[in-house]
Amino acid sequence: MRHITIISTIFVLTVIISVVGLFESKAFAFVDTTKPTISITSPLNGATVQTGNYVVTGTASDTGSGIKLVQIKINSGSIITATPKTTGDWSTWNASVSFSQSSSNTITVKATDNAGNARFSNIRVTVNTTPKPNTNAVFVFLVRNNGIDDASLASLYSKHARSIDIVAQFTDKLLSDTITSQVPAQKSTAYFSLSDIQANVQNLHNLGYAWVVYDLEPSYSPASEVQDPIGSIQKASEYAHNNGLKLMITPAGIASSNFAGMAKYSDGFILQVMGLIAGDPAIFSNTIHDSVTKIRSGNPNSIVILQDSVNKDTVDQMNNAWDLTKDVVNGITIFYSTPDQLPQMAQVLTHVDGIS
User: Fold this and answer.
1) What does residue 299 show for φ and ψ, rounded to 5 degrees?
2) 144, 171, 175, 236: which could form a disulfide with 214 (CB 3.0–4.6 Å)?
3) Predicted TM-score of the model (pTM)
4) Residue 109: which of 126, 87, 92 has the closest Cα?
5) Who wins on pLDDT, 131 or 141?
6) Is the pLDDT of residue 78 over 60?
7) What is the rounded distance in angstroms from the CA atom of residue 36 to the CA atom of residue 23?
8) φ/ψ of residue 271, rounded to 5
9) Which secondary-structure segment (H or E) carries 89?
């Protein structure tokens, strides 16, 4: 009898444990009913983009079972699976898409978590089917304003500036009213660190600036940012795009093997070539062509600019640098320090755009 009681007790406990286990299993199966969040960070809603390839970027998160995948489509086109930041990490993602329809286009993204919950988000952009400008139609000035007479500088801009120029102040200060009254709206300023970009992007946007420049290099940027160049550019992209700005990057001392990954998150790329043309022109040309190939493999729409310097190269050398690479780059910047260097700048500008 005692044995029967023990067996009965064990049976009852087994049934209870099984029921509890089943209940817990059922409960667990339904615990995550919260939809994930997803947003597009670039392009911005209402932005105008060029026809052709474009790298769309965004963010996604989920407080329950975690993001399983992010998908994207343009209008009613094919569904594309995006690429996560790293395997399993969808905090940021990107996808290469193609715009072929003129006028208004809808970009739709979908985040699905591991429990099957899904959320959609969409924006509308206008596609410009006008062909991209010739290489010498894009021109960028990087300004180092050390005692430069604003009137002389503004005069130089009024001759050579085009409607799509970018005007940057290398000293991290805003361009003066005298200069900005002479140049297009797409002006910008440069910073060496993510903290400086984060602190200034909102004000730049409010003041009508269109670009922010991230000058990432070992001599001036924080070591942690230099050691993770792609991650640093990605973070700078979030700061810029979330505040309605485009991101131009100008890395120095960063291995070119990172260029494609960095270009995914930037809208423009400045190659610092100061002093390089003074060596073997053939090596210079091959180096730039190889770099541009890597950049455009990451972002086919990237504007690529040469940055030269009157402090390190002669006018003939800078002109030669342009002639050797103008088939793949969009423009040239000239780094200068003193007012007496403006005539040298003007000679190079005239060579590039044909305006004297």
Assistant:
1) -150, 95
2) 236
3) 0.64
4) 92
5) 141
6) yes
7) 26
8) -95, 120
9) strand 89-99
